[in-house]
Amino acid sequence: MPLSLRFAIRWMSYPLVFGGSAAFMIWALYTGVPSWPIMPLVAAVGLIVIVGLERLQPFREAWLEDHHDTATDLLHMLINLTVIQFTAEILARLGDAVPASVRLFPIESPLWLQLVLVAAVLDLSLYVMHRISHRVHWLWRFHMIHHSAERLYWMNGERRHPLHAALMAGPGLVVLLASGAPSAVIATWFSILTVHLAFQHSNLDYSLGWLRNVIGVAETHRWHHKREFEDAQVNFGEFLLLWDHMFGTFYDGADRLGDAQVGLQERDYPTGYRAQLVAPFRRKF
């Protein structure tokens, strides 16, 4: 592959694919285009491009191969994205119904500011619940599914137990619901986050340079998935790493992963979708 193409993929993939997807979604928000099905379709296009880029310039060649996980991850992704989209839509519609007299969310503000507020609330909720899930045993049993992946690639971002996915976003959604945040703004952010999470877990050799200290991309997130996790209790941020900096859980693991493996220390964790759904309720795990 020409060096110029490798350079372009490494430095322009995230800005062009994620930035382009986000820009289109924000444009749709401003023009009043219904979030369904436009937002999911735009996110799907972004994911397809990431798949192609992984094949062109993988971070690890071995992670391109199926680890008897593709079918399981596909089910996780389809079910979790459906659950999240519909849950967010239903809850947010309730937020639309909050009377103006008690509405706390600043709907008179510019749409970009509303989107920033929604992103901040949800991102803080995801950070807190993610960090707690590494400390509270019964939550860790659900979160283990996400860390059971023995390779990182575009679908890993949605490898989550549906109950845990709901718990992660739940506090933020409740706050937004109670404050009367517009459903269209919430739906837009969830679609933008879908493309980001695919990048965060992608098997793509790309870089954001110093911005990896601000945005939770693969360069810093791969360390979080190390099998030897004692020094990997860091970088919990789903989108921003602001919370990790604030609460002392940031670590710049870029270019330091070496040949370290990812996954769980429990090598016998189930690989099938149904088995993973029931694993948190089994005493063994």
A few lines on this structure:
This protein has 285 residues and is mainly alpha-helical. Helix content is 58%, strand content 0%.
Would you write up a description of this structure?
Helix 4 packs across helix 7. This protein has 285 residues and is mainly α. The relative contact order is 0.16. It is built from ten helices and no strands. The protein has one domain.
- C-alpha-based Rg, rounded: 19 Å
Low-confidence stretches: none
Rounded mean pLDDT score: 92
| Oligomeric state of shown chains | single chain
Shape label: globular
State the helicity in percent bands: 55-70%
What are the salient characteristics of this protein?
oxidoreductase; mainly alpha; 285 residues; Sterol_desaturase/TMEM195; globular; transmembrane; glyceryl-ether monooxygenase activity; 58% helix
Question: What is this structure's SSE topology?
Answer:
Elements: H1 3-31, H2 35-56, H3 70-96, H4 111-133, H5 137-147, H6 162-179, H7 183-200, H8 218-224, H9 242-246, H10 273-278
Domain Fatty acid hydroxylase: 116-249
Protein name: Sterol desaturase
GO molecular function: glyceryl-ether monooxygenase activity; iron ion binding
